[in-house]
Recover the amino acids of this structure.
DNA sequence: CGGTAATCGAGACGGTACGTCATGTCTTACA
DNA sequence: TGTAAGACATGACGTACCGTCTCGATTACCG
């Protein structure tokens, strides 16, 4: 799936005229981009380098991805989507959150994704069009999952019905992104548990969740 | 204060030989950089542009700042340090946190600082030397303030003595940075209060803090 | 008639199998090329542009013309051959030359052909195969006409029998091409007459031809 | 002397501020360009290739020469100006013309200059600004020399005083350029003599110059 | 009338050069 | 020694064109 042009093309669509897009080239570009991005970071990766490593011409890249950033987004997404499992419903808010956030943290910490994500966020600050794509591809899907989790918890009575769910989401994802981007401490499993427990029970301890998991 | 070379050290230092450094140039550079950074973002600002706007030669900039990023850091720091008031002790954890975070959020939201901070974080991902400077100049001072606040709260018995303070700091700063960088929702005063209250009392509501402020 | 491949050979040839060549496309390509060439010059005309204007695919052009230059040669030739009348025998060398050169000069000056011819000559300098085609299509026919004229003049005794006819041809065509390509002065009718008269009678005036025409 | 910017800079001019232009680079560029041009022709020479061979950056070339063509003009001019001797006055029109044209023909035939000159003429057809520079640098100086020769011949009575000198110049340079560019026959010494003699005496032979030289 | 074969349109592709721009260094003259 | 001016090597940018290619669609013939 491309960030750039009309890459939708339903299955049943009649074959379009002209030479069809080279699937080989598409995959080679995304893989080359992903490897280079993780090895060197967005700003150190040139389109020329991607083209060379993918065995592809620069024009072919620009035909499908308008900017380096959109290519990076797609490249990262390919890796990320392939690796991330869909969380299952555990019956408790704590369990649901852990099953959502643990794979995310494990994935985020497994390779230098933070560097690439930081670069994408930086680009989103300046380019509104890119920001829109970044939001809808990377951010919203995960927030939507979290919204469902919190909504179901409210229905079960685990959290008050007037809870501001947007704030709640920021309370759990915020600290994770914080460590991912600032790198002042590891994105460990322990940290995920601590974040979830603190978000649920609070620091003062009166509502502290005692489950062990 | 420069990120780069001889940071001039003490007042009483003997006058060095040769023409002294031009204070006018130093200020002009920092101001030009700050304005351009906030207007266009780090990646869109060139050293040539800073030099031209400051009425200064490029060589002069490079003599004192080794990279564009260090210059940006200093330029941002000048603005930020001038504006941020030092928080006062209120006697309660909630009060202390609000007096620490509210000015931060107000400042961060007042101009497009997020764009510059995101760029600095991005650079820190790749350049370890810069990361070190960024941490010690921007991150640690504020974490140290927060550590003091939590430590005093533990002494007062407001939070358990075994609280992991590093996690606690991430629980309040994380959500703020999250909104600053992702921009999916405003960094409002209301949000700061919600973050503090949730961090203290938790989402489940059993320990919910009922103070009104 | 194409510069490139199977130049169709004889009329009576048996119809070849497969879809026959589209005459419509052939004409459209030549016309599009001629218009673009005269408007912009060879180097400013791209095959893509010709294809688009002719409503034809690039592959169709390349199937029949190996290079842009050969296409330009054919396009120019179509225009040129259609416009140039065949000179008639006047009975005198001066009359024959004028009847040969005047139409040439009028045509050459009528539209920016100089620009295209210069480009073809340039290409011929580098590509020997093209040079051969250019000579045989554009240069030799006209030189052959001129040879006949001078030969008959020698038979009539108008010029010495040992006259070097190749030099004689260069003496009349050279100055015309000179103005066409350098453009320092107009290719006027007056100039054609002056060239012929000077070539015949010389600058010193002793043999000056006094006919008026 | 450059075609591009303000390369005049009189001798006595006060040293301009900033790093002075690198004479070494200037010469290396012109020499690299000249060698490549003569070896491959203008269209086959890329700026990248010139930069690489000269050991110079592309930006440096573009700083001083706006286009490839202006660079080629300067490169050719350097070679040409260094080689061409100034003709001397012989006392006769024939002698003067031979002393002007023989070195020109020898030089033009010595290396594949025709290919480069053809390309420059081609460019001049399309780019009026370049045409102006080409005329004033390459064409006019030589025409001015020729004008002097014919003017003095008229004063001596060798040619009629009402001779159209512009036509006369085209009569001798035209055939030479014709052979240089069309390449249908060699630019030999014999040819130069034949052109001069025919231009002076005419083909009809009544005014034929009988000097031998 | 169905099969074979060359043509055509569309347009993606690898490759190469373009001319521009930014980085960081260097070389002058002047302060 | 510091500074303004500005030339320099390096290298990436995004665009444009070239000539080739792979499709489906078309249009003749030939069996």
């Amino acid at each position: 799936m491309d960030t750039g042009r009309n890459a939708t093309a339903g299955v049943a669509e009649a074959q379009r005229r002209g030479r069809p897009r080279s699937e080989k080239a598409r995959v080679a570009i995304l893989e080359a981009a992903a490897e280079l991005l993780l090895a060197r970071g967005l700003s150190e990766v040139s389109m020329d380098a991607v083209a060379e490593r993918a065995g592809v011409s620069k024009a072919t890249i620009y035909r499908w991805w308008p900017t380096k950033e959109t290519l990076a987004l797609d490249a990262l997404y390919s890796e990320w989507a392939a690796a991330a499992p869909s969380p299952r419903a555990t019956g408790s808010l704590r369990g649901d959150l852990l099953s959502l956030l643990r794979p995310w943290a494990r994935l985020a910490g497994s390779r230098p994704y933070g560097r690439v994500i930081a670069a994408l966020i930086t680009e989103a600050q300046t380019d509104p069009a890119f920001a829109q794509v970044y939001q809808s591809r990377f951010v919203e899907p995960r927030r939507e999952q979290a919204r469902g989790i919190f909504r179901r918890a409210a229905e079960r009575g685990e959290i008050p019905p007037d809870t501001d769910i947007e704030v709640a989401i920021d309370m759990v994802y915020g600290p994770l992104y914080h460590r991912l981007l600032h790198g002042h401490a590891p994105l460990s499993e322990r940290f995920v548990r601590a974040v979830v427990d603190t978000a649920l029970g609070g620091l003062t301890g009166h509502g502290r969740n005692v489950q062990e998991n």
